[in-house]
Amino acid sequence: MNILVCISHVPDTTSKINFTESDTKFDTTGVQFIINPNDEFGLTRAIWFKEKIGAQVHVIHVGTSAADPTLRKCLAIGADKAYRIDAPATDGSAVANELAAFAKDHAYDLIIAGRESIDYNGAMVPGMLSALLDMPFVPNCVGLTIDNGMATAEREIDGGREQLKAHLPIVIGAQKGLVEESDLRIPNMRGIMQARQKPFEVVPSQGAEAKTKDVSFEKPAPKAAVKLIPADDIDQLIELLHKEAKVI
Amino acid sequence: MSVLVFIETENNTLKRNAAEVASYGVALATLLNTSCKAIVFHATNPETLGQFGIKEVTLVSDAPTHFDAHAYAEIVAEHAQKNEFSQVVVSSSADAKYLAPILAVKLQAAYVPNVVNLPQSTTPLSYKRAAFTNKAFAYSEVLAANSVIGVSNNSFGVVEKNERCAVVPSSSASPSTKLEQLSIEKVTGIATIADADVVVSGGRGLKGPENWHLVEALADVLGAATACSKPVSDMGWRSHDEHVGQTGKPVSTNLYIAIGISGAIQHLAGVNSSKVKVVINNDPEAPFFKAADYGVVGDAFEVVPKLTQKLKEFKA
Ligand SMILES: Cc1cc2nc3c(=O)[nH]c(=O)nc-3n(C[C@H](O)[C@H](O)[C@H](O)COP(=O)(O)OP(=O)(O)OC[C@H]3O[C@@H](n4cnc5c(N)ncnc54)[C@H](O)[C@@H]3O)c2cc1C
To answer: Based on the domain organization, do B140 and B231 belong to the same domain?
Structure first.
């Protein structure tokens, strides 16, 4: 089985978000970048398949060399080969089109992307990729088993879960639940050494065009100070929620 | 360049979020000087969209009865192309986020998710949308002729119009399905995090799963959904689908009540777009107080039962 895991390289969850150049660019100063958490859940499941039923696991990123350490980390925790499509990740549509052009030339049985990236939160890439490749797609995927070319996947829905079945190849949008937090791997010395020997290929861009452009950014307005209500005056809280906030 | 609104249903009746997406679509059409129509699958009450200014809705009956994103996207795309709708408006529910990217590819449209307001400008179309898990907003310009707009929950609100809405049955043939639905489990009769007006959320400060009756009782009087912080679901005190925050479900509700939750940056990121936040925590230094509208510094085991009791009296 050949698995492709799409990797986004995002600011660490504790990052302070700031912008430069008159609020037109994300300020990367002092920002630590990580594998997008949802992608990491997906990659961990891919490595599980590799160990349990045998699979080749490839990781791919669309973007600049800034993400190379992130891809090396993917190799260190068990991926077999890394690709980077050398194109600016201008929007979700451009990224999906670059990935689709690549995937069309390779026979993947399973393509995994994260449910959404935690920076632009588009939740666009996996769904668009599935449509471009005409493959079934399971987003918010919290369970996946593969047996004899058939995938059984579980999708989290508002207020429950849905079980779906399809022939491979399919695309899934991974999230927590597909594997547990405790299943995530930390690269060890051996993994890091091996990663240096693993193939890492830079692929030229197909020149996919973006359909949106982020022209500027803005931070939320600062919040007014909290109104503290004494613990022995709950009536006051109810009064405020009713009359001032009008939410009850 | 007219506007089409995709309306979702639950048990064949319009979902609550129909009111907001319909209101948004109608307002967008007014701004663009065009008309707004809707499309819905298997609904028994589509004409009620008139309440939000929709004058015509297409009712699709020949399609899978459960939500099937691939099949539904194909039907909506065909309908949009045939009738020259250039802007398709959808919600931010799990189903809408499933449909929208597939639909955008079929329409060769731009997809702008998490939109919080009407366009800032119309030439070019430019939308304000939430990004960086609510730590910032982006202004996104649309570079394509068509777009799919995902409206953020509880951002635009509902505008009552009281128009008459004509229901037009659709004649499109049902496309073949790519995914076989084996089963579906869904809670019924109780509010879900995505749909609820109020969410009551508990953290590690509640000490253990045996104390969750406090959260549930409070949620019960408010008709609220229950949620929890990440460690609470990691430790198995509550099921994963209650985990909210940056790596869990997003919450964008009218009232969010956080009990015994410290307010870590990853938690706040996922719940910050809720309108009003109430924090109950015994540590006056808890970071959540900086992000809250109302706060009670006190022991949850005393404050919560009292709040529940007083709310019962208030509601009576
Ligand atoms: C990559 C990553 C992603 C993450 N994603 C998420 C996410 O999506 N969602 C999320 O929630 N977290 C997330 N976290 C975890 C986050 O950093 C915090 O660890 C977590 O939110 C803390 O949960 P908590 O507030 O329940 O627990 P704690 O931080 O332990 O806080 C418990 C609070 O309860 C209060 N308390 C104790 N006793 C009482 C009492 N009797 N009455 C009242 N108050 C009391 C304490 O004062 C304290 O403030 C993530 C972390 C990482 C690294």
So the answer is: no
A93-119 pLDDT per residue, tens: 999 999 999 999 999 999 999 999 998
Q: What pTM, to 2 d.p., does this model score?
A: 0.95
Contact A245 B276 (CB under 8 A): yes
Residues 98-127 of A with CB under 8 A from B: 118-127
ipTM: 0.96
For residue B140, tell me if it sits in a domain.
Answer: yes
User: Of A81, A115, A112, A109, nearest to A99 (Cα)?
Assistant: A112
Q: Are residues B95 and B208 in the same domain?
A: no
Does B294 sit within 8 Å of A13, measured CB to CB? no
In this prediction, residues B148-165 reach a mean pLDDT of: 96
Cβ–Cβ < 8 Å for B161, B26: yes
Using the atom order of ligand 1, give the atom closest to the CA of residue A34. 1
What are B81-138's pLDDT values in tens digits? 999 999 999 999 999 999 999 999 999 999 999 999 999 999 999 999 999 988 999 9
Of A165, A214, A231, which has the smallest distance from its Cβ to B303's Cβ? A231
* Dihedrals phi, psi of A99, to nearest 5 degrees: -65, -40
Which domain covers residue B36, as residue numbers?
A: 2-169
Separation of alpha carbons A196 and A191, rounded Å:
9
